[in-house]
Design goal:
There is one protein chain. By secondary structure, the protein is an alpha/beta fold. Helices cover about 45% and strands about 15% of the residues. It is built from 33 helices and 25 strands. Strands 1, 4, 7, 8, 11, 12, 13, 14, 18 and 19 form a ten-stranded mixed sheet that branches. Strands 22-21-20-23-24-25 form a six-stranded parallel sheet, with helices on both faces. A three-stranded antiparallel sheet has the order 15-17-16. The structure holds N-acetyl-beta-D-glucopyranosylamine. The site of N-acetyl-beta-D-glucopyranosylamine (NBG) has 17 residues, from α6.
Amino acid sequence: MQTVPNQPIECVPTVVVEDDRTGLSVETLKRAFQDNLFYIQGKFANIATQNDYYMALAYTVRDRLLRRWLTTAETHTHQGVRTVAYLSAEFLMGPHLGNNLISLGIYDEAKQAITELGLDFDALLQQEEEPGLGNGGLGRLAACYLDSMASLDIPSIGYGIRYEFGIFDQDIRDGWQIESTDKWLRYGNPWEISRPEWAVEVKLGGHTERYTDEHGRNRTRWIPHEVVMGIPYDTPILGYKTNTATTLRLWSAAAAESFDFAAFNSGDYFRAVQQKTVSETLTKVLYPNDESAQGKKLRLAQQIFFVSCSLQDMMLILIRQGIPLEQFHEKFAVQLNDTHPAIAVAELMRLLMDEHGIEWDTAWRITQKTLSYTNHTLLPEALERWGMGLFSTLLPRHLEIIYEINSQFLDDIRRKFPNDDARLSRMSLIDEAGERYVRMAHLACVGSHAINGVAALHSELLKQDVLRDFYELYPEKFSNKTNGVTPRRFMVLSNPRLTNLITSKIGDGWIKHLDDLRKLEAFVEDADFRQQWRDIKLAIKQDLATYIKQVNGIDVDPTSLFDIQAKRIHEYKRQHLDVLHIITLYNRIKANPDVHITPRTFIFGGKAAPGYFMAKLIIKLINSVGDVVNNDPDVRDRLKVVFLKDYNVKFAQRVYPAADLSEQISLAGKEASGTGNMKFSMNGSLTIGTLDGANVEIRDEVGAENFFLFGLTTPEVYELKAKGYNPYHYYESNLALKAVIDRIASGGFSNGDTNLFNPLVSTLLYKDDYLLLADYQSYIDCQDRVSQTYLDQEYWTRLSILNSARMGKFSSDRSIREYCEDIWYVKPVAVELKEYVQAGTGLA
Ligand code: NBG
């Protein structure tokens, strides 16, 4: 165990010349870069690869944030500050290099240094393999929150899993999605530092025993079947232009005893390393789920693994700081990002009681005060539950604890709601309807002091529907925390041209105080400003057009309306409704080639979960429609359909700024919040959307007149379903819709093959859970208004500016402030940097 010195190290000398590892001038950056190329990469320039250059630059930047990082940790340790621990199975960080340059305020200097060395700076930024340790919005939200916590000087630490393989890489072959392994660590990761000296052990399987301890108390001991080591890997998270650099601590699994000497000596080489292989499997791969719980043993093992490592790590921090464990909840506010870390309820109880001898009642009080839970979904199939067989085999001790929590909890309900057996069985932590399951959302609700949804509508629906019983029992626990996104990554880094224009008008205060964007409203009537705004959008669209030509081989017109839907592919998000619109326009052209059409480029991006057949078929449909539409001479290039493969954070940064229209068309009541909707709008795109998730609040902020609204509302959806929804009726009674469906069904996009899209067509006609057919006409009418509006470019530009100007609310800084005030009770702590100096070190 490492000890932390009680005193800050006082040998910090005073600066005389710029040090190679900390200096920020162009000359020093060049020197440092060359130094790292030689001493870290071990290469002369003439044989260095692009990756060597990237690594040399990355180390140059990392050096420059280490002092802030270590000083932050030291400051927080010495002041014993209250700290947020953000537990998340996913962190979709995106590339670090550009973001760190922005936070350090040396983006331009680094660019100049690299350019003067004769290298292509943008190519080096592109070289970084992003850590794709998440599926989509939930993981990216966690990453935005880390950025905001650091930028607001909130003592915080993100805890997660260091998956060796992140979300799969997506290729498109013959229109179909093909997955391949994401080997992001192949060339090393310059941003992380492993800390094997702080490894912890995690138990799995086995059985429990009772015993009496030296004080005569009845205790429980867990005899595991297996013990796995968790090794922490730390990545610095530097706040924007502040001294605070917090930590993302990701756990990697390793065998406790990696080499079995007995087996080796007996000649069984395979068995000698077998244990190592089995243990390391634990953190090999991220499950590419999309809002469906799968109940896989390895997944549950991953959850207990990272939760146990993280809680033990927090305990070690307390112990090192001399804080009694009874004060755990005073030191740490632990946020459960969805139910993936919900096992923390039982694990914290177990650690406090079994490992540290604390009594049940005290342990329970500590647990509830420590934990809080964010729900991220309304889809019933996404609510995690674990089969009893699996759970008891892997976590026998946790099951006992959960039974005890449940029995006390059910007593509580009986007292408050006497004679209500139906309520008891609905709320129980154990689902006993058929095969028995542990319900993780219920465990999270019972074990936390706060429960929140991620947009106003979503939080309301949780109270009325998914978690209604819990709301009736503990109304005081519930609140809403509307999601936000970081403007540092999604404006400053992704859209430097717009950033410069905005800053030239209103200064750069908006980057930390996004509400300041409102000042842009003063320029809406300034024709020059509008022209500049338009020129920038066009230039960005031109860049994306060049990329599309390179990758997809399709020519697109940058002056056409860029209509983009980029997000995970899922039936509830209704990418196929977007396709129905494309085919509607195509049919109009086929009926009359001279019909007026506002030229549009339809762009899609997103991955489908590998096991989700319908989502993959939707990708195939998009590509098939593209093949026909893009090549039909009647279309005369007025419509183009492009599917951009391998959508990830790096790529998203390129896409958001290029959109004119952002498609947010999920069925009302299904999308918890959405965060892409915010990123598009900040970058001046208009939204076509339903009253779902955060769209509702975006529309409130930007003004109803500046938002293209269509579709059923949530109550209307409930009502329609209650009275018996019949999609076929819409098909029969709407000629345009019928023509669209018929064109797909008759093989119009599959060379006459009527089978290929049949699963999709028949789902729409006879089931249509996501009410595409019910919303079709409203969507088409709204799209026609969009096309009309786009013709008036001056007017469109006004709306675009107003969309950006009114997005202040959707900064993740605002979300984090709300969490701090209402749930975490954590305050900012300023970090002072003692100046780093060489004199006196003997180095000068
Ligand atoms: C997703 C929701 C989105 C939401 C993000 C972040 C899951 C389980 N949920 O609507 O679908 O924006 O979470 O809160 O990934």
